[in-house]
Structures are given as C-alpha cells and as structure tokens.
Amino acid sequence: MTYGSPVGHAYLHRPWAVRSRPLVPSRPTAPVSHLNLVIPVRADLAPPSAAGRARPASWLIREDHQLRRLPAGVLLLVPATFLTWAFRPGYMNADTLIQYDTAQGAPIDDWYAPVIQLLWRAAFEIGVGRPTFVLFAQCLAMSVGMFLILRAAVGRGTAAGLTIVIIALPMVFAQVMLVGRDMWLVAFGLLHVGCLIRWRGCPTSGWRRHLWLAVALVSAVLAIWTRQNAAAMVVVPCATMFARILRPNAPASRVSLRRLARGVGAVALAVAFCLCGLASARAIQRAAGVSDAQPEALLYAYDLAGASIRLDRNLFGPLAFPKDDLAELRAHWSPDDVVPLVLPPDEPTLRAGRPDPATLEELEASWRDLLREHTGTYLQVRGSLFLRLIGVDAPASWVMHLGVDSNRFGFTLANPGANDALRTYVAWFSPGLDFEHGSWIFRPWPYLLLGLAVAIALVKRRRRTEPDGFVAAFLAGGLLYELSFFFLAPGHGYRYSYPAIVAALVGAVYLCGRVVSDRRSAGDARDAEQVEPERDPDPLLERATEPDPRAVPQ
After folding, report:
1. What is the per-residue pLDDT across 515-534, written as a single tens digit (0 to 9) for each?
2. Contact 317, 366 (CB under 8 A)
3. CA–CA separation, 190 vs 147, rounded Å?
C-alpha cells in the first residue's frame, strides 16, 4: 500500500479506523501490530525537529510533576505551622523541663531518653534547640510520616487532606502539642514505616531508593532511643523490611520450608537490629558520662506495694520502707500511679525515687521473691493495672496536659487565645475537670481491637501489596508496644497508649483508601474489557490493512 493510492486514501479517511500516522514512501522497517492492523513502521516518520524538541518536552514533564507535588507539600506544612503558632513554645510537663535543662548543659541521667537529650544539646549548639523548633519538627515529622503511609493508598492531595483530618481528631490532637518523648516516638515510628513504603515503591535501585532506606533505618534507631520499650514498636516493621531484603520478589501466596526459613531469618535480623540500637544507646551513654538513675526502681515499688496490700503483709525491706507501716502504705497507695508513694509533698513513704545502690539491690531482691513466691498475686497486680491502662476498668487519665508547668526558664504560652479555643475543642469530647479523665472516645481498648482487625484485614486481602504488609507490621508493632506495658508500666496514663491509638487510626484510614482504590480499579478494568461492537465487513478496508509483502522485510 502506498500513499496516494485509492486504497490508502480510503483507509486514512475512515474516522473510526485506528491508524498510527500518515504513510509516506520511505525505507521500510519491521512491522508493528496495532490491534488487528499490521502497519509498516517507517524510520523517517518523525519530523526533523522532533529530536530537538525531546529535551524540552522531558523538562516540561518533570516540571509538571513538581507542580503536582506542590499543593500536597503546602498542605503538609499546615498542621505543623498551625500547631506551632497556636501552642508555641509547646506544652511542657516536668519531664520535658528536666530534659530541656539537661539539653542546656545540666547533668544527664538515664531516667528519660539520654541519647535524644544529647542530640537536643547538639541542636542548641547550632541554634535550633528552642522548644518552638522542637515542636515544629515533631509535628512536621508526624505529618510527613502519615502522608507517606496514606500516599500508598490514595493520591497526593487526598493523602495530605486525610493527614490533616487524622491530626484534627480529638484523640490525636490532644497530645500533638506536648513536647516529649511520647510524641517523638510516634513521629519516628510513622516516619520509619512511611520511608519503608517509599523505599519499596521506588522503581529503580538508584540513590533515591537507598536514601529512603537510610532514612527509615535512622528513624527506627531514633525511635528505639526514645523509650526503654520502644523496640517493641519497631521490631515488626524491621522484620518485614529484612524479609523483603532477603527475598525482594517473593510471591505473597507461596508457602514453603525455604520461605519459612527466610521469615525466621528476617525476625532474627530484626531482633538483632533492635538489640544493636539498644547497645549503641548504652555505649553512647557511657561515652558521654550519663549517670544511672535506676528508673526500674519505680516498677519494683509499684508491684511490691500492690502485692503487699493484697496479701496484707509488708514485702519491702527496711531500706526501701523503713516505717514498715501498712496503714500508711494504704493511705498513699494509688492503683493508677506509683508517684504518690515515692514523691509525696513531705517525706516519701518509699525510698524508690532514684535510690542508692544498696536500696536498689534490696528492692530488686524483694521483687524477685515476689515473682517466685507469689506469682499469682503479681499477675493480679499487673493485670489490674493493664486493664486500667487500656480503659476497661477506668477511663483514660490525663488525656491532655494543662500547658506549661511552672519553671525557672520563663516559658509561658505565647498565644493564650488560640490555646484556650483549641482546648475548648478537646473539652467537648472530654468533659472531665482539667482533662484528668477522658470520655469514652479516649479509651484505648477499642483502638487496640481496631488495629488488630485492620492488621488481619490487610494481611488477608486478596489484592495485598507490599505497603499493606508494612502497614500491618506497623499496627502489630503498636499492639506489641502496648502489651509491653503489662510488665513495664509503673502506672497508667493516656500518653502510654497514644502510639497504638495513632497507629490504629492511620491503619484504618489506609485500609479504607485501599478498598476505594481497588473498587475504582476494578471498575476501570471492567470498562476496558468492553468489546467494540462489530461492524459490517468492508472489503476496501480489509485490502487496505493487509501488509505489503514488498514493504515487509523477510
């Protein structure tokens, strides 16, 4: 077929016929099949200036992609900017003020997060250590982590909007302005999982993919350094990460002994990674001269006091409880916290707050005797506290801090009007006095069940993807972190359950986004499978679409 012939002219002027470009006499090349048409491809079909326009066209595509990212980036700055403006310099309790003092040069001990405090001190050296900067950084990291997770299920703009919605929920909003290690743990955990999703989503193995993986590992280590039990939240996503490294393209449905061995190896590597994170923290503390404040003494004091009251006998030694008076112990005992026993206004009932080595050794020996001789009583004490912690036997306590505690640094809220208005918003959902007891929406146990259900749904989905596995691992890590407080909590408070609550809400929104996206994809696939209605055969078209034997190379 040649251009200008009657057959070629009829073919080119059929409006419903599929054609690539006008045919011109030229040197033939290999044919290209397009639907049912076999049309020879000519080497000189493109205009001479096409090569010159190739580079500007590529630049325009990159510029268009950058412009599409701009609205989402602006939306991500909204929560951090607004929260910093409304609550600057941030809510600070006694723990925050002590850590701020150590960041300015006071002696550091291991009662809180000593490595993070050393990093805070380094931030002061470069001029970005003010609490306002820390507040903005923690809110921005939290927003970016949420966005990276949700971006795997929905579009950029939708993910940024859903991030703002999640942060605005009262059960999340109540803690975001508190500068402290609980918020740091949430921010680092979200950023860790979000970067892992982006790492697996990069199409190539270039520097960007390695950068996402590096940021994910750094975020995991920083999360481990924030709390003594934070490794429980990171170990499951790390196991998923190592599983993908050991077998990058493993099929999700294939079960074999080799795959089981790789899974065991991934878990072992994740545990080793977390142990290395803890060991590095201990090494940094020794190198920096961090003193040992024996924070485990509070755990010993709570368990021994609860068991002493249940057994109606004193289980303490003379150094920790010199008065040996059960009536006084009952008077100061609180099932919610050990603080009334160790930090009363006058002389403490128990000498368990930063004890000397001899008292700590006595407390540890008494605690071990409790585990060996009264195991049932010990489990009753821990179980009762855990039920209060997750909101089964008691409402959530101290769901929102009161602001900035009295301090010698002169910190006060810079925007009291916005602070009061936003506290009123949270008070609508928590009518208790000074947020001491939250309403039912702050009880953690429904969110723990929600996180468990979402994790199972993500694992059992028919169209499971790699981001689904990372989000399910994040939810499992949040549940494991919450369960660790069964053995480690010296009291209960809403901030202990806050990471698991945030993880459950993010996972639920992610699952909803995945379901909606799958339904849209299924609808698009059904539309694409619709076959074009048959037409009457046209002999002229049939002759036009036959390849020219002389034009096709043999």
Report:
1. 998 888 776 666 666 655 55
2. yes
3. 9
* Helical packing angle, 466-488 and 231-246, nearest 10°: 150
Please state the rounded mean pLDDT for residues 66-89. Answer: 85
Tell which residue, 78, 147, 183, 132, has the closest CA to residue 400. Answer: 183
- Return the minimum-mean-pLDDT range out of 157-166, 266-275, 330-339: 330-339
Contacts of 277 (CB under 8 A, 6+ apart): 220, 221, 224, 225, 231, 234
For residue 547 the two structure tokens come to 């390849």
Is the model's pLDDT at 14 over the cut of 80? no
Type of residue numbered 310: R
Tokens 């359950």, located at residue = 497
Q: Give CA separation, 388 vs 277, 300, 394, in Å.
A: 31, 19, 5
Q: How far is CA 253 from the centre of its chain?
A: 26
Residue 13 has pLDDT above 60, yes or no: no
Q: List Cα–Cα distances, 102 to 236, 288, 324, 325, 455, in angstroms.
A: 32, 13, 36, 37, 40
- Reading the block at residue 235, the tokens are 């170990």
Cβ–Cβ < 8 Å for 233, 480? yes
- pLDDT higher than 90, residue 66: no
* Distance separating alpha carbons of residues 139 and 167, to the nearest angstrom: 9
pLDDT tens per residue across span 161-209: 999 999 999 999 999 999 999 999 999 999 999 999 999 888 767 788 8
Per-residue pLDDT at 284: 96
Q: What is the Cα–Cα distance from 262 to 284, expressed in whole angstroms?
A: 32
> What DSSP character marks residue 409?
S
Residue 337, beta-bridge partner list: 491
- What's the CA angle centered on 392, arms 389 and 398, to 5 degrees? 45
Q: Kindly report whether the peptide bond that precedes residue 79 is cis, defined as omega within 30 degrees of 0.
A: no
Query: What is the CB neighbour count within 10 angstroms for residue 271?
Result: 14
Q: What are phi and psi of 4, to 5 degrees?
A: 95, -15
pLDDT band with cut points at 50, 70 and 90 for residue 44: very low
Task: Give the distance, in angstroms, between the CA of residue 201 and the centroid of all CA atoms in the same chain.
Answer: 17
Helix (H) or strand (E) holding 30: strand 28-34
| Best CA proximity match to 173, nearest among 518, 524, 519, 502 | 502
Which residues does 532 contact at the CB level (< 8 Å), separation at least 6? none
Mean pLDDT over 232-240 rounds to: 96
Query: Phi and psi for 314 in degrees, rounded to 5?
Result: -80, 120
Residues pairing with 33 in the sheet? 38
